[in-house]
């Protein structure tokens, strides 16, 4: 496995996902506050949910990156890299809106406590946090810590895969926002 290629691919995916999310902040109030016919979230609520989910995922990513860097002292990174294979198929459903059922925790539900400007700024900071962790673990260290991910039964995933999950989650909700937009048009 070319770990440097994986890190670059995740950076590219993050940029595309976050750029796409950021464009939604520029929509007019009618689009941002449109309640879809299925009773789902408005675009503004989806944007808040993306921020909240990122917030909690980044707590795990931060802990994982610290542990991975500590593990670097005791584990054979070259052996981990040699034995690692990225199973992209396992993750693809995460980015597809409606591909599986999962009840999100209440703390990831939008509450309307932040305005759009605050959410946009926080999401931008989250993007830069992800890049920071990828830069920090730029030699493969992110493979040295695995944490369980219950969503869609992913199981134990490494820190890089957590960051990729975060990016796929945003992509999933971009589709949801596009669905809302199609109803408005």
TrEMBL record:
Pfam families listed in its UniProt record: DinB_2 (PF12867)
InterPro entries: DinB-like (IPR024775), DinB/YfiT-like (IPR034660)
Top-level taxon: Bacteria
Domain DinB-like: 32-177
Name of the molecule in the record: DinB superfamily protein
Organism in which the protein naturally occurs: Chryseobacterium arachidis
Upper classification of the organism: Bacteria, Pseudomonadati, Bacteroidota, Flavobacteriia, Flavobacteriales
């Amino acid at each position: 496995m070319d770990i440097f290629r994986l890190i670059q691919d995740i950076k590219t995916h993050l940029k595309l996902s976050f750029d796409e999310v950021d464009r939604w902040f520029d929509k007019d109030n009618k689009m941002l506050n449109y309640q879809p016919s299925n009773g789902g979230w408005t675009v503004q609520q989806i944007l808040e949910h993306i921020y909240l989910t990122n917030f909690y995922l980044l707590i795990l990513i931060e802990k994982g990156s610290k542990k991975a860097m500590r593990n670097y002292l005791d584990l054979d990174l070259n052996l981990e890299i040699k034995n690692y294979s990225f199973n992209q198929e396992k993750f693809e459903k995460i980015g597809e809106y409606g591909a599986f059922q999962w009840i999100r925790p209440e703390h990831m539900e939008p509450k309307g406590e932040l305005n759009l400007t605050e959410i946009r700024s926080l999401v931008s900071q989250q993007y830069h946090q992800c890049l920071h962790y990828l830069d920090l673990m730029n030699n493969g260290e992110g493979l040295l810590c695995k944490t369980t991910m219950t969503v869609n039964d992913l199981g134990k995933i490494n820190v890089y895969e957590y960051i990729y999950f975060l990016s796929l989650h945003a992509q999933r909700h971009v589709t949801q926002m596009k669905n809302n937009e199609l109803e408005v048009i």
